[in-house]
Specification:
The chain is of the alpha/beta class. It has helices at residues 25-35, 50-66, 84-92, 113-127, 138-147, 149-152, 191-206, 213-228, 240-252, 256-272, 276-293, 296-312, 316-332, 336-352, 356-373, 376-392, 396-412, 416-421; strands at 13-14, 17-18, 41-46, 70-75, 98-103, 131-136, 155-160.
Amino acid sequence: MPKGRGRKKPTGKVNGKSEAPRPTEFDKLLRFIVTFQGRFALAFICGEDRRQRQGVLASLSDLLRAKGIELRQIDLTYREVADLYSSLKEECRQNSLAAIVLTGIEASLKGNLLASLNIQRDLISREVNCPLLFWVSNFALTVIAREAPDFYDFRYTVFNFKRARDRQPLMSQDTVLREPTALFDRARGSESWTTFLFDLLERYQKDEVRLEALDRMAYGELLEEVARSYRDKKYRTEALIYLERALKIYSELQEKGREAAVLQAIADIYYFADNQVKAAENLAKALPIHREIGDRLGEANALQSLGHVKRMEGAYGEAEALYQQALPIHRKIGDRLGEAAALRSLGHVKRMEGAYGEAEALFQQALSIYRELGSRMGEANALQSLGAVKRMQGVYAEAEQLYSKAVEIYASIDDKHSQGETPPVAGGSVSRPGRTGEGTFFSQSS
């Protein structure tokens, strides 16, 4: 199609009639499961964000239940599996309409699982009479394709749940993404997993100069995985060397989306290390890339992160302007969690400026969205923010009630860190702007 002035923008109409909306990735996944009921079909779901995965699976389970189909999840995160069929046998004995989704397979990649997948391919396809889905990271998908090619070739498709774009959202706006309680991914930070990553890294480094484009892409993703192994705040800055190498690879390959994501990951590290100048520098590089490739969610998150930096510097006017730019983008792409996070960020600015009435109204809006989505973490954070407003106004009884409700929720979702961070009613300090609803590089997990 010709470029330039002569190129017409799509109108959304065909022969004068409104064009039907394109199916989202979520729609395609739902249709796949319904279509292949009663017979084997293999598919992979590729996504890096742990919260997104849990929300998608919870929403999918609700919709399938209404159709009489049970979504059975087998989580392999906390155990190393060498024989997949043994884990599937019990599920295969049940005769009800179902689909099986496996998560956490990354913990087993270093063992004998990949070799057994090739051997057991035909057995699994005969015995599993329902759709079988693997939710994996980009890195895990690359490893499976390389090390278990016979099994991987059996796939029907790969569903890509990456970042939402304004042109093609992952879910339609009338599908409410649930966010259930999330557990910390212990296996991904385990010593055995880290050892496996470094062993694989050594293999890539030996052949670095001879790597083809696809192998270099996998190498970059491996470097990101190694960086994520530095979850402990004490060692986070040590992840920078691996992220910088990944950034160089993605830049050379013209992988703009990955380049922007790594720049934001680097910014996250500098932000939590109180180096706001470096954080802003990397975010300023990421923002135009997100805009260039049409990644509206990435753009909104970069704007919001820049707002956090300005807020930490005490530049509340600049922070507010950045949050105000992010808010309508979140709304336009149907990112309700991002919308709530932006509202809460604006509330913090108003609270610091002493505009308590405006701050309370913004926190209440965020609280309503979190409750609508079933986000217990978001609800607790909003209640804590409302408590901070009441505390600063000297309304200690109301502040205590709000803090107590927040602590109860934190306890129910086993978030001991946030329980400890909830300040006493008559004191406490202002906390660092968080990334709730948006996710940081270290909180993303398949």
